[in-house]
Design goal:
246 residues, alpha/beta, Rossmann fold, seven-stranded parallel sheet, 7 strands
Amino acid sequence: MRLAGKRAVVTGGRQGIGRAIVEAFLSEGAAVLTCGRGAAADDLPHGARWIRADVSDPADAARLIAAAGAPDILVNNAGVQIEKTVTDSTDADWEQVIGTNCRGVFNCCRAAIPVMPRGGSIINIGSISGHVADPSMALYNASKAFVHGLTRSIAVDHGPKLRCNAICPGWIETGMLEAGLALASDPARARQDALARHPVRRFGRPQDVAALAVWLASDEAGFATGQLFTLDGGLTAASPLQPGLS
């Protein structure tokens, strides 16, 4: 029960990584408020509270944080991915991706920081795509680089009152992974190639990210701030030349 007595806000907790973090926080004793643009899922984990909110709207973000009281933990997980290059991207694509992935994180942090108790923890979900560019993901890649920079700034500007870190997942088994593979001319072959490039020989699972989020939210991580924690099964550690692929 590493999070017993703590209040947590997790954005985008309906499915995928956000859902796994909600479940993990509840199992560790936290009181969890989560949100999304639509209605709560029918199978929302028992004990979690839901509020309908669009984090790209500053008023909604402020309302979300106010509903949590003074949260000890904020996880900015809500995110959008669009598979397009710069020249293919429209103004509407910009508003959707940057609005959620950048403005949404900023809005929630700006609302939460003044009311968070001393010792609070902000966890932003970045991506290895903020370090290395996935093809045809121009806005998504750029948005995650923004999240990484904002994470460092918050840690520097608002310590020692609170800590701020980012988790940078690699290929995690969610709808975003499938959308990325679908860009390939042969998705099945692309999947096998991608798996071979992971030293652990599997893709990540939402629960892998949730486990790291629990640690970062807990007092055990009291000396960790301003860091970008890559969680990619070793994908970005390796040379592009892999045995068996030549």
